[in-house]
Amino acid sequence: MPIARAKALKFPALLSIGIIGSLLLLTLIVPQLLHGDPLALTDDILQPPSARHWFGTDDLGRDVLVEIIYGTRVSFLIGCAAALATAVAGTAIGSLGGFFGGVTDTVVTRLAEFFQVMPTFILAVVIVALAGPGLIRVVAVIALLSWPQTARVVRGEVLRLSRLDFVDALRCVGITEWRILTFEIIPNAVGPVFALGALIVGNAILLEASLSFLGLSDPSVISWGRLLSAGQRFLFSAWWLSLFPGLAILITVLAFNLLADGLRDMFDPRHAK
Amino acid sequence: MTRYILGRLFWGLVMVLGVVVVDFLITHLLPGDPIDALVGNYPAPAAYIERVRHDFGLDESLAAQLGHFLVNLAQGNLGFSFVNRQPVLPLILDRAGVTLILMLPSLILASLIGVALAVAATGRNGRLMDSVLTGVSLTGHSIPVFWLAQILIVVFAIKLQWLPAQGMRSIRTHDPMLDLLRHLVLPAFCITVYYVAVVARVARASMLEILHQDFVLTARAKGISRRAVLWRHVLRNAAIPVITVVGYNVGTSLTGAILTETVFAWPGLGGLFINSIANRDYPVLSGIFLLASIAVVIANIITDLLYAVADPRIRMTPARV
Amino acid sequence: MENNIRLHLSRRGMLLLALSAAPTALGLIPAPARAETPQYGGTLIMALDTDPPTVNPNVTTGVPDVSVGSLIYEALTRIDETFEPVPSLAESWTVSADNLTYTFKLIKTNWHDGTPFTSRDVKFTLENVSAKYGAKFRAAAGHIKQITTPDDATVVIELSSPFGPMLFSLSSYANAAILPAHVFEGTDVLTNPATLSKPIGTGPFMMKDWVRSQTITLERNPHYWRKGLPYLDQIVFRMVPDTSARVLALKAGEIDYIYFYYFSAEQYSQIAGDPKIQVRERGTPEDHLVIWNTRRAPFDQVKVRQALFTAIDREYIKKAVFQNLGSVMQGAIDSRIAWANDPAINLGQMYPYDPQNAAAMLDEAGVKPGADGKRLKINLVYDSADSSNERQAQVLHSMWQKIGVDVAFNGLTRNMMLPRVFTDWDFDATLQAYSTAGDPALGVSRLYVTSAIRKAPFVNASGYSNPEVDQLFEQGAAAAVQAERAAAYEQVEKVLAADLPVFPVWQTALLNVASTRVQGKWAWSTGYDYWDEVWMKKGDD
Question: Which C-chain residues 113-152 have CB contacts (< 8 A) with chain B?
Fold first, then answer.
């Protein structure tokens, strides 16, 4: 049964990589094929889907499909930047706690617990609402709210690894603690971080969409969340403005979650047995 | 045991205090002025503005405001809402009650469905159910909840006109209970979808893990039926992670439904929160943060206690981070 | 009754002109095929966004406060559909030849608690409440020398200098609803229960019940002084914070009425063609504007502002951003205040949309493209809560791009936008909606006159200062005769059309939407209606 499961999980993970890859490819290729300003305003306002505009047009006469393709960049960018920031912060903090123990560990643990008690979504809304939306701010908020999960996992792994014999062996050879941590332990401990990272990309895309839905998005760039919040006003008359960006989010986040599943099975020894 | 609980309570208190102070500083340091919400959108006489500013203590220094806030808090006084012109505590509790009317049935339903799905997936003919579970759970995690809410409204409220789209009660109604239930269906569905995903995933993972542990294999070897093992041993042990997840979500659920409440205009804490941000109603924001963090702390402690009930092997050592 | 309704309809022609261009205009005209006999009874449910902080229409300009308060408290005058003052608590009045003395004869009625209403209440309210706390009454208060009460039924207001919109300023819309002196005297007005939640008025409806964050229920005042009125048994205000939620509730029949404050033109498509919904365009005219920071180069140059104006196609903005409703604004004064607006001044004709010409004008002004083809970047600030702002910003960006002008979007929450624009003056241009307050002296002059360059919201943010304009606005406010006032305002429009410190963009479509059950005189005034002559059709519930 375990073997069969491993196979069954592999396909969805590969599929998800395929989906993510083709979306990325689309964002790279399509803008090259379009000439002029594909997001220029036109008089074709709120046209339903047709052969000319597959996903219809929005209130300013722009093609929704083109907008979604352009939005892919920002949504991916936010997702990946947030995941990267989270991974770096979480790994750094978590490994410090796990490796040095003592007071450091207590501080790290308590800090993580503090963030767990903190009502995260409402904090995100407060910060972005009061400080104003900006891509970097949104990324920072997402990272600020997601690092404890990564830190906990890394801390556990580091704790486990640092008790292994080879660490003591290295100490005997005279290698400094910092070198052991950065070159020996962390590289071995970050496996699960990849799985979490894929998960956070998905969550970040969702969170950006949620903030946008509440009107907290950066107006100078197109993201899927902003398309959705713009389409919300036309829910009755132009369902295509809401349906397609929502589907784009659903499919992409689904792909990242599948990928996270696959990665976790790869790195988590208990699932891989 | 008592000492353990007291310790947890103490740390919880410290956490809550930390959250409240951090929130107080964040809301007050970021730009914006509550005065505009108080006197309307038209240039008001300066003396009037000064007067209102003074009435609500907005002319004091930040440190003084924080000091007042904490002193009042210690006396159980959460302050007075600028915008709603009523004390914060009853205002928040009132709204929290409305939110719970939505959240509790959804969470209970989600827990039942989630565990049932997990049991079915680990049962004898579990392959198909397992795929169903994985599909449901992944979709639930990936779907933007406000988008789902919009689609539900378009389909069930606008096109089919089966269910009301907004609010908690109709004004013209003959059967208040039925009316409430009808209003509950769509928002509760949205919330349930998400929590089914959460619960089913955790329940399945922990049950699979336990199914392969020695004592289960022993039980099977002793000839106890698979069904009996599943229900009596596996489920009981798998309950712990499920309790953790549900417990944590009960804590966060007070504010967790902001988006759903917004789309369905459910008159709970979510709407109050959004409105308070727009109007810079600091006392209400502080109150909501306080309530939310207290709920999480209490839910965590109760979860820990339930651990002990579900699994006597667990001693009262705070192993979790 | 029948004649009455017809009369109002024909007078509304002016307002409906704006809509006649829209193919859907027919759907907008409230056309009672035949006037029906009003029916008594019934409950009308009206949407608000949130609980009003107060129910006192004099201490705030907040929409929910005044919406509720003006059904309970009444003022000396009401504003009719042509923005003319008509009698209310003052059944008649005379104005002295020098326009300095107003003598009001009051009606006889009782407060909701049974105490008689007298001239003392009027004097107390105007002096102690409206003058101190009423933002909209402020201008009028500055002209009042003294208020005397020769007897219980007479009030004499003496002015220090003539004030054109005096009678207008004595309406509940302008923070001048009369409050009961016996309840407020010797108390703190702001915290008096009659301000906060237990109002005692003279109006057609009385406070019955308030379930916070859900409903406010008003019931019929059985002793109302207008005989036989009101028709309705109850008016319920229901809190529905979300914009689209309100429309859904209206479509579902859960509410009967949405004031234009809570209904944006963007939502029109949601109700167009719904046979159960009717729309009336009515309210105090409001205008969408682009205000320039004339303190900053190069926006201090008239030529640059003219060029930027030439580069925008306001017809497209109306079509794409505002669903083709409302109308393009062609002068500094809203065309709906017809007596003060000069239709001969037409910005569309003065500056036809022409990007090439606009670019040439910028060249002339010395604002030339840099190496990257960009001439300048405009820091555009707006309130992000109003979704039309963001879309308008995008349209402007796209149009200005054609002449090498970039836009930095600064969509801020209202609480951040206000200090940025009105206190710190930290913007190049800002998108704003200004209410005309029904009279140029009340709502328009604050945008342009030097004395309104103050660090306060919704005054002269552009820093534009022109002695000629100051003087003309002063004349307009002080002149005794309407025609004299009009002459001054028409002259002002001419100067402002050349200077363009503010771009008039769009005259808001003020759409009040109601279930077809709602009958009678609804949506006929400034936007805070007098609901005594509204009735509900029974049967198709």
Answer: 132-133, 135-136, 138
Measured CA to CA, the distance from residue C493 to residue A128 in angstroms comes to 41
Nearest to A125 by CA among C382, B276, C46, C453: B276
Closest CA to C436 of C530, C529, C526: C526
Q: How far is the CA of B100 from the CAs of B104, B172, B292, B303, C164, in angstroms?
A: 5, 24, 13, 19, 56
Residue A31: the pLDDT is 78
Q: Do residues C404 and C369 touch, judged by C-beta distance below 8 A? A: yes
Query: C290 pairs with which residues across the strands?
Result: C431, C503
Which residues in chain C are contacts of A228 at CB distance < 8 A? Answer: none
Report which DSSP code applies to B44: P
Q: Count each helix (H run) and each strand (E run) in chain B, helices first.
A: 14, 0
Distance, CA of C181 to chain centre: 28
State both tokens at A166.
Answer: 């080879």
The upper half-sphere exposure of residue B234, i.e. CA atoms within 13 Å in the direction of its Cβ, equals 31
| Per-residue pLDDT reduced to its tens digit, C501-539 | 999 999 988 899 999 999 988 887 777 778 999 999 876
Question: Tens digits of per-residue pLDDT, B17-31?
Answer: 888 888 788 777 766
Residues B65-75, mean pLDDT to the nearest whole number = 83
Position C226, amino acid: R
pLDDT one-digit tens code per residue, C420-455: 899 899 999 999 999 888 889 888 999 999 998 988
| B66 at interface of C, judged by CB pairs closer than 8 A | no
CB C165 within 8 A of CB C441: yes
Distance (Å, whole) CA C259 – CA C247: 11
Beta strands in C333-473 (DSSP E): 376-383, 405-412, 429-435
Position C91: which residue type?
A: E
Nearest Cα neighbor of B304 from B62, B94, B5, B49 is: B5
pLDDT attached to residue C249: 82
> Strand pairing partners for C146?
C158
Residue ranges of domains in chain A: 82-271
Query: In CATH, what number does A82-271 get?
Result: 1.10.3720.10
Nearest to C401 by CA among C312, C293, C298: C312
Paired tokens of A21: 């890859």
Tell me the mean pLDDT in the region B85-90: 82
Q: Where would I find the beta strands (DSSP E) of C308-422?
A: 327-328, 376-383, 405-412
Bridge partners of C48?
A: C239
Nearest to A191 by CA among A146, A158, A232, A239: A158
- Answer whether the bond into residue C298 is a cis peptide, omega within 30°: yes
Is B65 in the C-facing interface, judged by CB distances under 8 Å? Answer: no
Query: Largest alpha-carbon pair distance within chain A?
Result: 75
**Token couple for C448:** 């342009």
Mean pLDDT for the stretch of residues A92-115: 84
ipTM, 2 dp: 0.81
Smallest Cα–Cα separation from B286: which of B62, B66, B84, B122? B66
Find chain B residues with C-beta within 8 A of C456's C-beta: 43, 46
Q: What is the pLDDT of residues B202-240, one digit of tens each?
A: 888 877 777 777 777 777 777 777 777 777 777 777 777
Residue burial B155-181, b: 16+ Cβ < 10 Å; e: rest: ebbbeeeebbbbbbbbbeeeeeeebee
Average pLDDT, chain B: 78
Q: Cα(C120)–Cα(C147) distance, rounded to whole angstroms?
A: 10
Give C227's contacts (C-beta < 8 A, 6+ positions apart): none
Rounded distance between C-alpha atoms, residue C437 and residue C443, angstroms: 5
Interface contact B86, partner C, CB < 8 A: yes
Distances (CA, A) of B127 to A132, B117, B122, C332, C396: 48, 12, 8, 72, 57
Tell which of A122, A155, A253 to mutate to test the B interface (max B CBs under 10 Å): A122
